[in-house]
Amino acid sequence: MDVREKGGTRRVALTEAMEERLLQETKSLVIFLQVALRNGKIYGLSNEAFLQPMARFQGILYSLLPLEGAISLREAEGYLFVNERRLRFDLEGFLSYTRLVEELRRRKIGEVTFQEEVSGEELHQFVSLLTLDERAERPWELMQKGLLQRGVTHVSVEAPVSIRFSSAKEGGKGRELARYVFLKGIGQVRKVLNQTAAAERIDIKGSKRVVQSLVDLILGEDLFILGLTSIKNYDDYTANHSVNVSILSLALGSRLGYSKLDLYRLGMAAFFHDIGKVRIPEELINKPAALNQEEFKVVSLHPYYGVLPLMRLKGFSDIVLRAMIASFEHHLNYDLSGYPPLSQRRRLTLFSRIIRIADSFDAMTTARVYRPIPLLPDQALAIMMDEAGRAYDPVLLKLFVNTIGIYPRGTLVRFDTGEVGIVVNVSPLPEYIHLPQVELVRDSKGNPIEGEVVDLAREGERRRIVRSVFPRELGINIVEYLWRR
Length: 485
Prior knowledge:
The chain has helices at 16-43, 48-68, 91-106, 120-130, 139-149, 175-197, 204-219, 224-227, 237-255, 260-271, 282-285, 293-299, 302-311, 318-329, 350-364, 377-386, 394-404, 471-474, 478-484; strands spanning 2-6, 9-13, 70-76, 79-82, 85-86, 111-115, 155-158, 412-415, 420-425, 437-442, 453-455, 465-469. By secondary structure, the protein is of the alpha+beta class.
């Protein structure tokens, strides 16, 4: 167990056994909150039947807060999440679970967050408000107002976010959840970049929660989250890029057979790989013309700059060390050319070689001010394959192509029939990586359709991909498609 001090609060780097215990504690947290709420309504807030479960709820919450920084309880379509961990209850706790879900849904409360500084009195006031009559047009707004009126500043409530889960046939954790985590990840990277620019301590806890959610999604059956990496944000490149690189790296790590813990370590390294960019002047990052020699020297310092804010973190851990190395090495090639220059030859870490591939692929397929027309995914992969053995680990690169496919999820393709479709899935079999599943969006005459999903690997399927297509050529909004699918 690695115990650290941060701002006077004990921080613990969790082992797998402790993670399991944490999950059990969060279940107990939910149970005692529901019992306290039920008894408070029946017996009143001064009765021992309320005070005892309330004390248990408070005690568990106080034991969790130093580990997590904040505790968010979120209800989504009948499921409960604590800090993005979906809770699954056995028969014994299921009744409390469902009652609390019903309570939150009646009040149209989507999320409750307890900050680390929350007092016992604030918790008492929060539960007291929950025992009041919830009948109102917008009850969660009344709850917010009531908290403010009672001076409760370390408990907050939010309206629901509709998180619809895929059916068992579709598999996975749910596409709305994937979109939610994707956007939350971009916001978290933006927060980390701002903290780095201001020389403030980085929010590791928030980043950890995002990466854990990404790992869970990658390990699910439905890899819809991979398709979201086709979403590119021209104006917020570094934040969007960092999340994309994390997802792509995790997909490759999963294909390598990494354990959940190793995937988490890899995801954290990828998440922080580009934070040194904030130290580079924006006029160089966004220069439309080629950099001169002196300007390139400045830009090539960003891997080094990325190490410095991570070094300032208290409680030096294996995760932080791996992130530092990845930041330093992510622009070094497989043959050790690239930057920053090394004083002596050494083998790049496996994490760095994975992130190098993911970083290059996402960068090549994203429009930048100095390259307004990006490469199509299959074009980028072809260029990268030509550089295998020099810029990229050839074995990892081949596995990367097998993982995302020649035409990755979210790629727009044209068939020999004239039809156009969006790739929605790729085959896990190497011999079929050029034969994805495609949802038709244009018929042979170019008319918009909501067509069938065509499996090109299916025996008897005669359609063949002619080429990939830029969405803007046909006026197709890939982001809108992925957001409604």
